[in-house]
Amino acid sequence: MWFLPALAPLGVGATVRLQRCGWYPAGGGEIEAVITPTARIGGLTAISPPSPLEVTGCSLISRLPRSITERQRRQAETRLAATGLTAAVTIEEDTLALGPGTMLFLRAHGRAGFSALGRRGVPAERVADEAVDALLGWQRSGAAVDVHLADQLVPFLALADGPSAFTCPALSGHLRAVAWVVQQFLPVGIALCDGRPARVEITPGPRPGRAGPEVTAVDA
């Protein structure tokens, strides 16, 4: 819901449509993906958080009372409004799912996404709070992208025509692992700079060519 929109400005054309939710334990989820080949991928420079921050979202439900989604939306919009953020959260119902389930997803300007799943015994308001708390935590970090998008961007930016640099809240284990794996296949320089926020710099090398430099960890 926020990964592909983040790739679109780089020249990556792809869309994913949810056909059916696959809630645990019934499963059975289905998606339809359409990927358009591209001749080139552009670099990314995202150092500062987007401003003004545009927040959109979705309160989704399957085989449960619709009032749950309405409560999730109301709680999220109220919490965000109290911090000066305006959110447009839609309500969606999946009638094809094999089992019950609900979730709230919030997207911030195509650079960050936060979700929370409903569980038995957990009020809808608490589900909304989990997603809102995560979004506000990212906002306070001063990072341009969220911690999950950070590692997902690396393989694409390693194939870009030029250098890239972005900030994220922290250097996660996933980010370090993805950076290492990419280095095993591509001649690319990746600098991981630990700080608040953390910074990632990616410099693609020639194709084909020599093995790339090792991942560099830099203390702030």
Topology summary:
Layout: H1 3-7, E1 13-20, E2 30-36, E3 45-46, E4 55-62, H2 66-82, E5 87-93, E6 101-108, E7 112-117, H3 124-141, H4 147-157, E8 164-168, H5 173-185, E9 188-194, E10 198-204, E11 216-219
Helix pairs in contact: 2-3, 4-5
Characteristic key phrases:
single chain, 220 residues, alpha/beta, five-stranded mixed beta sheet, 5 helices, 31% strand
Shape assignment: globular
Cα distance, first to last residue? 32 Å
Computed over alpha carbons, the radius of gyration is 19 Å
User: Strand-and-helix sequence, N→C?
Assistant: HEEEEHEEEHHEHEEE
Kindly state the mean pLDDT as a whole number?
92
What this model shows, in words?
This protein has 220 residues and is an alpha/beta fold. The protein is built from five helices and eleven strands. Strands 3-8-10-9-11 form a five-stranded mixed beta sheet, covered by helices on one side. A four-stranded mixed beta sheet has the order 5-4-6-7. Helix 2 packs parallel to helix 3 (124-141) and helix 4 (147-157) runs parallel beside helix 5. It is globular. The two termini are 32 Å apart.
